[in-house]
Design goal:
Shape: elongated
Radius of gyration: 25 Å
Number of helices: 9
Oligomer: single chain
Distance between the termini: 29 Å
Helix content: 10-25%
CATH superfamily of the largest domain: lpxc deacetylase, domain 2
Structural class: alpha+beta
Number of domains: 2
Strand order of the largest sheet: 19-22-25-24-23-21-20
Largest sheet: 7 strands, antiparallel
CATH architecture of the largest domain: 2-Layer Sandwich
Strand content: 25-35%
Protein backbone atom coordinates (compact mmCIF):
# COMPACT_ATOMS: atom_id res chain seq x y z
CA UNK A 1 0.00 0.00 0.00
CA UNK A 2 1.32 3.45 -0.92
CA UNK A 3 1.97 5.67 2.09
CA UNK A 4 1.83 9.47 2.25
CA UNK A 5 5.11 11.35 2.03
CA UNK A 6 6.61 14.63 3.19
CA UNK A 7 10.15 15.99 3.39
CA UNK A 8 12.48 15.24 6.28
CA UNK A 9 13.92 18.70 6.93
CA UNK A 10 13.70 22.37 5.93
CA UNK A 11 15.23 23.52 2.64
CA UNK A 12 15.02 26.79 0.72
CA UNK A 13 15.50 28.25 -2.77
CA UNK A 14 15.71 31.81 -4.11
CA UNK A 15 15.29 33.38 -7.54
CA UNK A 16 13.07 35.63 -9.60
CA UNK A 17 9.65 34.98 -11.06
CA UNK A 18 9.47 34.12 -14.76
CA UNK A 19 6.62 36.52 -15.37
CA UNK A 20 6.86 39.23 -12.69
CA UNK A 21 10.68 39.23 -12.26
CA UNK A 22 10.00 39.67 -8.53
CA UNK A 23 12.71 38.40 -6.21
CA UNK A 24 11.45 35.60 -4.01
CA UNK A 25 12.70 33.08 -1.47
CA UNK A 26 10.72 29.92 -0.82
CA UNK A 27 11.17 27.71 2.23
CA UNK A 28 9.98 24.09 2.15
CA UNK A 29 8.96 22.59 5.50
CA UNK A 30 7.68 19.15 6.50
CA UNK A 31 3.93 18.86 7.13
CA UNK A 32 1.67 16.46 9.01
CA UNK A 33 -0.11 13.60 7.26
CA UNK A 34 -3.41 14.50 5.60
CA UNK A 35 -2.55 18.22 5.70
CA UNK A 36 -1.85 18.50 1.96
CA UNK A 37 0.20 21.11 0.12
CA UNK A 38 0.00 24.64 1.53
CA UNK A 39 1.50 27.88 0.22
CA UNK A 40 2.05 30.47 2.96
CA UNK A 41 2.59 34.13 2.02
CA UNK A 42 4.85 35.21 4.89
CA UNK A 43 5.14 38.73 3.41
CA UNK A 44 1.40 39.42 3.70
CA UNK A 45 -0.51 40.47 6.84
CA UNK A 46 -1.66 37.44 8.77
CA UNK A 47 0.49 35.12 6.64
CA UNK A 48 -2.43 33.78 4.60
CA UNK A 49 -2.41 30.10 3.65
CA UNK A 50 -3.44 28.97 0.17
CA UNK A 51 -4.13 25.26 -0.10
CA UNK A 52 -3.36 23.40 -3.32
CA UNK A 53 -6.92 22.62 -4.34
CA UNK A 54 -9.15 23.06 -7.35
CA UNK A 55 -11.34 25.56 -5.50
CA UNK A 56 -8.41 28.01 -5.14
CA UNK A 57 -7.44 28.13 -8.82
CA UNK A 58 -7.43 31.55 -10.46
CA UNK A 59 -9.01 31.86 -13.89
CA UNK A 60 -6.66 31.38 -16.83
CA UNK A 61 -7.51 34.84 -18.12
CA UNK A 62 -6.21 36.50 -14.96
CA UNK A 63 -3.16 34.23 -14.73
CA UNK A 64 -1.96 34.40 -18.35
CA UNK A 65 0.21 31.50 -19.64
CA UNK A 66 0.79 30.19 -16.14
CA UNK A 67 -1.10 28.48 -13.35
CA UNK A 68 -1.88 30.49 -10.24
CA UNK A 69 -3.91 30.14 -7.06
CA UNK A 70 -5.31 32.69 -4.70
CA UNK A 71 -7.69 33.57 -1.93
CA UNK A 72 -9.17 36.83 -0.66
CA UNK A 73 -5.90 37.94 0.93
CA UNK A 74 -3.09 36.72 -1.35
CA UNK A 75 -2.14 34.74 -4.43
CA UNK A 76 0.77 32.66 -5.65
CA UNK A 77 1.66 32.55 -9.35
CA UNK A 78 3.42 30.14 -11.71
CA UNK A 79 3.21 27.10 -9.47
CA UNK A 80 3.07 24.43 -12.18
CA UNK A 81 6.78 23.52 -12.32
CA UNK A 82 6.97 23.15 -8.54
CA UNK A 83 3.69 21.21 -8.40
CA UNK A 84 5.02 18.90 -11.10
CA UNK A 85 8.10 18.15 -8.98
CA UNK A 86 5.90 17.43 -5.95
CA UNK A 87 3.75 15.10 -8.04
CA UNK A 88 6.78 13.41 -9.58
CA UNK A 89 8.27 12.76 -6.13
CA UNK A 90 4.87 11.66 -4.72
CA UNK A 91 5.00 14.27 -1.95
CA UNK A 92 1.56 14.64 -0.40
CA UNK A 93 2.14 16.99 2.53
CA UNK A 94 4.37 20.06 2.62
CA UNK A 95 4.31 23.68 3.76
CA UNK A 96 5.80 26.17 1.29
CA UNK A 97 6.58 29.63 2.64
CA UNK A 98 7.29 32.42 0.15
CA UNK A 99 7.93 36.15 0.53
CA UNK A 100 6.52 37.35 -2.79
CA UNK A 101 3.72 36.54 -5.21
CA UNK A 102 5.47 34.24 -7.71
CA UNK A 103 7.41 30.99 -7.45
CA UNK A 104 10.98 31.47 -8.75
CA UNK A 105 11.48 30.43 -12.36
CA UNK A 106 15.01 29.11 -11.82
CA UNK A 107 16.03 27.31 -15.04
CA UNK A 108 12.47 27.04 -16.41
CA UNK A 109 12.06 23.34 -15.57
CA UNK A 110 11.33 21.28 -12.44
CA UNK A 111 14.84 19.97 -11.87
CA UNK A 112 15.97 22.57 -9.29
CA UNK A 113 12.84 22.01 -7.21
CA UNK A 114 13.30 18.24 -7.46
CA UNK A 115 16.94 18.41 -6.39
CA UNK A 116 16.17 20.71 -3.45
CA UNK A 117 13.35 18.48 -2.22
CA UNK A 118 15.48 15.36 -2.57
CA UNK A 119 18.29 17.05 -0.63
CA UNK A 120 15.82 17.57 2.23
CA UNK A 121 15.07 13.86 2.24
CA UNK A 122 11.72 12.21 1.54
CA UNK A 123 10.01 10.84 4.66
CA UNK A 124 7.28 8.22 4.45
CA UNK A 125 4.34 8.71 6.80
CA UNK A 126 2.05 6.15 8.41
CA UNK A 127 -1.17 7.13 6.65
CA UNK A 128 -2.03 5.71 3.20
CA UNK A 129 -2.20 7.94 0.10
CA UNK A 130 -5.69 9.01 -0.95
CA UNK A 131 -5.91 8.39 -4.69
CA UNK A 132 -8.86 9.32 -6.85
CA UNK A 133 -9.56 6.89 -9.66
CA UNK A 134 -11.35 8.42 -12.63
CA UNK A 135 -14.63 6.52 -12.92
CA UNK A 136 -15.85 7.51 -16.39
CA UNK A 137 -14.20 9.15 -19.42
CA UNK A 138 -13.91 12.95 -19.23
CA UNK A 139 -13.36 15.09 -22.32
CA UNK A 140 -12.52 18.79 -22.70
CA UNK A 141 -11.67 20.71 -25.86
CA UNK A 142 -10.70 24.18 -27.06
CA UNK A 143 -10.33 24.69 -30.83
CA UNK A 144 -7.81 22.05 -31.98
CA UNK A 145 -6.58 21.23 -28.45
CA UNK A 146 -8.14 18.48 -26.36
CA UNK A 147 -7.70 16.40 -23.22
CA UNK A 148 -9.26 13.09 -22.24
CA UNK A 149 -9.13 11.37 -18.84
CA UNK A 150 -9.81 7.63 -18.92
CA UNK A 151 -10.13 5.10 -16.08
CA UNK A 152 -6.80 3.41 -15.41
CA UNK A 153 -5.12 1.55 -12.53
CA UNK A 154 -2.11 3.89 -12.63
CA UNK A 155 -1.25 7.46 -13.64
CA UNK A 156 -0.22 7.63 -17.27
CA UNK A 157 0.06 10.51 -19.75
CA UNK A 158 -0.03 10.18 -23.53
CA UNK A 159 0.61 13.43 -25.35
CA UNK A 160 0.63 14.53 -28.98
CA UNK A 161 2.18 17.79 -30.15
CA UNK A 162 1.43 19.20 -33.60
CA UNK A 163 1.90 22.89 -34.44
CA UNK A 164 2.42 24.70 -37.69
CA UNK A 165 6.13 25.18 -37.06
CA UNK A 166 9.09 23.26 -38.51
CA UNK A 167 10.39 22.34 -35.03
CA UNK A 168 7.01 21.65 -33.43
CA UNK A 169 5.51 19.29 -35.94
CA UNK A 170 3.86 15.98 -35.11
CA UNK A 171 5.35 14.30 -32.04
CA UNK A 172 4.04 11.76 -29.53
CA UNK A 173 5.21 10.59 -26.11
CA UNK A 174 3.73 8.41 -23.37
CA UNK A 175 4.84 8.54 -19.74
CA UNK A 176 3.93 6.17 -16.91
CA UNK A 177 4.64 8.38 -13.93
CA UNK A 178 6.98 7.13 -11.23
CA UNK A 179 9.60 9.18 -9.31
CA UNK A 180 12.36 7.56 -11.35
CA UNK A 181 10.67 8.21 -14.70
CA UNK A 182 9.83 11.79 -13.76
CA UNK A 183 13.41 12.64 -12.80
CA UNK A 184 14.91 11.03 -15.89
CA UNK A 185 12.32 11.77 -18.57
CA UNK A 186 10.44 14.93 -17.54
CA UNK A 187 12.04 17.08 -14.83
CA UNK A 188 14.73 18.69 -17.04
CA UNK A 189 12.35 19.93 -19.75
CA UNK A 190 12.19 23.75 -19.87
CA UNK A 191 9.44 26.16 -20.76
CA UNK A 192 9.46 27.55 -24.30
CA UNK A 193 7.95 30.16 -26.58
CA UNK A 194 8.18 31.18 -30.22
CA UNK A 195 10.50 34.00 -31.21
CA UNK A 196 7.67 35.89 -32.93
CA UNK A 197 5.52 35.92 -29.79
CA UNK A 198 8.19 36.76 -27.19
CA UNK A 199 8.14 40.54 -27.67
CA UNK A 200 4.33 40.68 -27.61
CA UNK A 201 4.17 38.62 -24.42
CA UNK A 202 6.54 40.97 -22.65
CA UNK A 203 4.55 43.95 -23.91
CA UNK A 204 1.54 42.37 -22.18
CA UNK A 205 3.53 42.12 -18.96
CA UNK A 206 4.18 38.39 -19.34
CA UNK A 207 7.67 36.89 -19.11
CA UNK A 208 9.45 39.85 -17.48
CA UNK A 209 11.87 37.45 -15.82
CA UNK A 210 12.40 35.26 -18.87
CA UNK A 211 15.72 35.03 -20.68
CA UNK A 212 17.49 32.67 -23.06
CA UNK A 213 18.75 30.56 -20.14
CA UNK A 214 15.40 29.83 -18.46
CA UNK A 215 13.20 29.83 -21.56
CA UNK A 216 13.75 28.06 -24.86
CA UNK A 217 13.06 30.64 -27.55
CA UNK A 218 12.31 28.88 -30.79
CA UNK A 219 13.14 30.67 -34.02
CA UNK A 220 12.92 29.58 -37.64
CA UNK A 221 16.38 28.00 -37.46
CA UNK A 222 15.91 26.34 -34.07
CA UNK A 223 16.52 27.23 -30.43
CA UNK A 224 18.19 30.62 -29.98
CA UNK A 225 21.29 30.91 -27.75
CA UNK A 226 20.69 27.56 -26.08
CA UNK A 227 20.69 23.80 -26.66
CA UNK A 228 18.04 21.16 -26.13
CA UNK A 229 18.38 18.77 -23.19
CA UNK A 230 16.17 16.20 -24.93
CA UNK A 231 15.61 15.96 -28.69
CA UNK A 232 11.87 16.28 -27.91
CA UNK A 233 12.17 18.69 -24.98
CA UNK A 234 9.09 20.68 -26.07
CA UNK A 235 6.62 17.82 -25.71
CA UNK A 236 8.25 16.75 -22.45
CA UNK A 237 7.68 20.22 -21.01
CA UNK A 238 4.03 20.13 -22.05
CA UNK A 239 3.73 16.88 -20.09
CA UNK A 240 5.58 18.48 -17.15
CA UNK A 241 3.04 21.34 -17.10
CA UNK A 242 0.12 18.93 -17.36
CA UNK A 243 1.38 16.81 -14.45
CA UNK A 244 1.79 19.92 -12.29
CA UNK A 245 -1.64 21.30 -13.16
CA UNK A 246 -3.35 18.00 -12.41
CA UNK A 247 -1.71 17.81 -8.98
CA UNK A 248 -3.63 20.94 -8.05
CA UNK A 249 -6.59 18.65 -7.49
CA UNK A 250 -5.03 18.14 -4.06
CA UNK A 251 -4.69 14.36 -4.43
CA UNK A 252 -2.90 11.89 -6.74
CA UNK A 253 -4.80 10.46 -9.70
CA UNK A 254 -5.25 7.04 -11.16
CA UNK A 255 -6.12 7.84 -14.75
CA UNK A 256 -4.85 7.72 -18.31
CA UNK A 257 -4.61 11.29 -19.58
CA UNK A 258 -4.49 11.74 -23.35
CA UNK A 259 -3.60 15.23 -24.53
CA UNK A 260 -3.33 17.08 -27.81
CA UNK A 261 -1.72 20.55 -27.81
CA UNK A 262 -3.22 21.47 -24.44
CA UNK A 263 -2.08 24.46 -22.40
CA UNK A 264 -2.77 25.67 -18.87
CA UNK A 265 -6.28 26.93 -19.62
CA UNK A 266 -7.42 23.56 -20.95
CA UNK A 267 -5.49 21.65 -18.27
CA UNK A 268 -7.41 23.53 -15.59
CA UNK A 269 -10.72 22.82 -17.31
CA UNK A 270 -9.89 19.13 -16.97
CA UNK A 271 -8.93 19.64 -13.33
CA UNK A 272 -12.35 21.15 -12.64
CA UNK A 273 -14.13 18.34 -14.51
CA UNK A 274 -12.26 15.69 -12.52
CA UNK A 275 -13.10 17.50 -9.28
CA UNK A 276 -16.77 17.51 -10.30
CA UNK A 277 -16.68 13.77 -10.98
CA UNK A 278 -15.13 13.16 -7.57
CA UNK A 279 -17.88 15.19 -5.92
CA UNK A 280 -20.52 13.19 -7.77
CA UNK A 281 -18.85 9.89 -6.90
CA UNK A 282 -18.93 10.54 -3.17
CA UNK A 283 -22.64 11.34 -3.31
CA UNK A 284 -23.08 7.58 -2.93
CA UNK A 285 -22.04 8.02 0.70
CA UNK A 286 -23.42 5.89 3.51
CA UNK A 287 -25.18 7.34 6.56
CA UNK A 288 -26.87 5.94 9.62
CA UNK A 289 -29.13 7.01 12.39
CA UNK A 290 -29.96 3.40 13.25
CA UNK A 291 -28.73 1.88 16.51
CA UNK A 292 -26.85 -1.33 15.80
CA UNK A 293 -26.77 -4.06 18.39
CA UNK A 294 -23.51 -5.99 18.46
CA UNK A 295 -23.86 -9.68 17.72
CA UNK A 296 -27.29 -9.33 16.12
CA UNK A 297 -27.92 -10.33 12.54
CA UNK A 298 -29.26 -7.64 10.25
CA UNK A 299 -31.76 -8.54 7.57
CA UNK A 300 -32.24 -6.51 4.39
CA UNK A 301 -34.84 -4.21 5.94
CA UNK A 302 -32.40 -3.26 8.69
CA UNK A 303 -29.57 -2.82 6.17
CA UNK A 304 -31.71 -0.37 4.20
CA UNK A 305 -32.06 1.75 7.35
CA UNK A 306 -28.28 2.09 7.32
CA UNK A 307 -27.35 2.20 3.65
CA UNK A 308 -28.94 4.56 1.12
CA UNK A 309 -28.59 1.91 -1.60
CA UNK A 310 -31.70 0.34 -3.08
CA UNK A 311 -32.47 -2.17 -5.79
CA UNK A 312 -30.88 -2.72 -8.20
CA UNK A 313 -27.76 -1.42 -6.44
CA UNK A 314 -28.03 -3.01 -3.01
CA UNK A 315 -25.71 -6.03 -2.94
CA UNK A 316 -25.99 -7.16 0.68
CA UNK A 317 -28.85 -9.45 1.70
CA UNK A 318 -27.84 -9.99 5.33
CA UNK A 319 -25.16 -9.08 7.88
CA UNK A 320 -24.54 -12.33 9.76
CA UNK A 321 -21.78 -11.08 12.09
CA UNK A 322 -20.92 -7.63 13.38
CA UNK A 323 -18.19 -6.54 15.77
CA UNK A 324 -18.60 -2.78 15.95
CA UNK A 325 -15.86 -0.92 14.13
CA UNK A 326 -13.72 -4.04 13.84
CA UNK A 327 -15.23 -6.81 11.76
CA UNK A 328 -18.35 -7.67 9.79
CA UNK A 329 -19.56 -10.52 7.60
CA UNK A 330 -22.28 -10.12 5.01
CA UNK A 331 -23.83 -12.33 2.39
CA UNK A 332 -25.20 -11.80 -1.10
CA UNK A 333 -27.23 -14.57 -2.71
CA UNK A 334 -26.43 -14.40 -6.41
CA UNK A 335 -29.36 -15.40 -8.63
CA UNK A 336 -29.95 -15.52 -12.37
CA UNK A 337 -32.57 -12.79 -11.84
CA UNK A 338 -29.90 -10.24 -10.89
CA UNK A 339 -30.15 -7.50 -13.53
CA UNK A 340 -26.47 -7.42 -14.48
CA UNK A 341 -26.53 -10.95 -15.93
CA UNK A 342 -28.61 -9.68 -18.86
CA UNK A 343 -25.54 -8.08 -20.36
CA UNK A 344 -22.66 -9.76 -18.46
CA UNK A 345 -22.73 -11.97 -20.40
CA UNK A 346 -25.61 -13.41 -22.46
CA UNK A 347 -25.22 -17.18 -22.49
CA UNK A 348 -22.35 -17.10 -19.96
CA UNK A 349 -23.47 -15.16 -16.86
CA UNK A 350 -20.63 -13.88 -14.64
CA UNK A 351 -20.97 -11.38 -11.80
CA UNK A 352 -18.91 -8.26 -12.68
CA UNK A 353 -15.83 -7.87 -10.51
CA UNK A 354 -16.58 -4.21 -9.83
CA UNK A 355 -19.91 -5.24 -8.25
CA UNK A 356 -18.16 -7.74 -5.99
CA UNK A 357 -15.95 -4.88 -4.77
CA UNK A 358 -19.02 -2.67 -4.33
CA UNK A 359 -20.73 -5.40 -2.27
CA UNK A 360 -17.69 -5.63 0.00
CA UNK A 361 -17.70 -1.83 0.35
CA UNK A 362 -21.35 -1.89 1.42
CA UNK A 363 -20.55 -4.41 4.18
CA UNK A 364 -17.60 -2.21 5.11
CA UNK A 365 -19.89 0.82 5.32
CA UNK A 366 -22.12 -0.91 7.86
CA UNK A 367 -19.09 -1.95 9.93
CA UNK A 368 -17.49 1.53 9.80
CA UNK A 369 -20.63 3.28 11.02
CA UNK A 370 -21.48 0.85 13.80
CA UNK A 371 -19.46 2.43 16.68
CA UNK A 372 -21.31 5.04 18.72
CA UNK A 373 -18.81 7.78 17.83
CA UNK A 374 -19.62 7.34 14.11
CA UNK A 375 -23.39 7.43 14.39
CA UNK A 376 -24.84 10.16 12.20
CA UNK A 377 -21.70 10.42 10.06
CA UNK A 378 -21.30 9.73 6.37
CA UNK A 379 -18.93 7.05 5.11
CA UNK A 380 -17.75 7.86 1.61
CA UNK A 381 -16.14 5.07 -0.40
CA UNK A 382 -12.96 6.77 -1.67
CA UNK A 383 -10.69 4.12 -3.15
CA UNK A 384 -10.03 0.45 -3.72
CA UNK A 385 -6.42 -0.74 -3.85
CA UNK A 386 -4.65 -4.07 -4.26
CA UNK A 387 -7.72 -5.64 -5.86
CA UNK A 388 -7.29 -9.31 -6.76
CA UNK A 389 -9.89 -11.49 -8.48
CA UNK A 390 -9.35 -15.19 -7.89
CA UNK A 391 -12.47 -16.92 -9.21
CA UNK A 392 -15.65 -16.13 -11.12
CA UNK A 393 -18.98 -15.72 -9.31
CA UNK A 394 -21.95 -17.37 -11.01
CA UNK A 395 -25.73 -17.54 -10.57
CA UNK A 396 -26.58 -19.80 -7.63
CA UNK A 397 -23.45 -18.87 -5.66
CA UNK A 398 -23.66 -17.42 -2.17
CA UNK A 399 -21.13 -14.61 -1.85
CA UNK A 400 -19.77 -14.34 1.70
CA UNK A 401 -17.92 -11.08 2.40
CA UNK A 402 -15.62 -10.65 5.39
CA UNK A 403 -14.49 -7.14 6.29
CA UNK A 404 -11.74 -6.47 8.83
CA UNK A 405 -10.87 -2.94 9.99
CA UNK A 406 -7.41 -1.61 9.41
CA UNK A 407 -6.44 1.87 10.54
CA UNK A 408 -9.56 3.75 11.65
CA UNK A 409 -9.31 7.43 12.54
CA UNK A 410 -11.83 10.15 13.21
CA UNK A 411 -11.91 11.19 9.55
CA UNK A 412 -10.69 8.22 7.55
CA UNK A 413 -10.81 4.48 7.69
CA UNK A 414 -9.24 1.60 5.85
CA UNK A 415 -10.56 -1.94 5.75
CA UNK A 416 -9.50 -5.18 4.12
CA UNK A 417 -12.21 -7.19 2.43
CA UNK A 418 -12.37 -10.76 1.22
CA UNK A 419 -15.19 -12.42 -0.67
CA UNK A 420 -15.69 -16.19 -0.68
CA UNK A 421 -17.81 -18.78 -2.47
CA UNK A 422 -17.86 -22.26 -0.93
CA UNK A 423 -14.94 -21.30 1.29
CA UNK A 424 -12.71 -20.30 -1.63
CA UNK A 425 -11.52 -16.72 -2.07
CA UNK A 426 -12.99 -15.05 -5.16
CA UNK A 427 -11.86 -11.47 -4.50
CA UNK A 428 -9.93 -9.36 -2.01
CA UNK A 429 -9.15 -5.65 -1.79
CA UNK A 430 -8.12 -2.80 0.49
CA UNK A 431 -10.96 -0.28 0.72
CA UNK A 432 -10.66 3.33 1.83
CA UNK A 433 -13.46 5.43 3.34
CA UNK A 434 -13.76 9.03 4.50
CA UNK A 435 -15.84 9.70 7.60
CA UNK A 436 -17.43 13.13 7.77
CA UNK A 437 -20.23 14.79 9.66
CA UNK A 438 -23.61 14.85 7.93
Amino acid sequence: MDKQRTIAKVVCLSGIGLHTANKVTIVFKPAEADSGISFIRVDSPGKPVIKAAEINLLSSSSAGRRTSMGGPDAEVQTIEHLMSALSGLAIDNINIELDNNEIPGLDGSSINFLEALKSAGIREQEEPRHFFSVKEPIYVQEASASLIALPCEEFRVSYALNYNHPFLRSDFLEIRLTPEVFEKEVALARTFCLEEEAAELQRQGIGKGANYDNTLVLGKEGVIKNKLRYPNEFIRHKILDLIGDLYLLGYPLKAHIIGLKSGHALNLKLVRKIAQQKERSISAGVSTGYHLEEGRELDVSMIMKILPHREPFLFVDRIIYLEKGRRATGIKNVTINDYFFKGHFPGKPVMPGVLIVEAMAQVGGVMMLSPEENRGKLAFFLAANNIKFRKTVLPGDQLVMEIVAGKIKSKTGQVHGKAFVDGKTVCEADLMFALIER
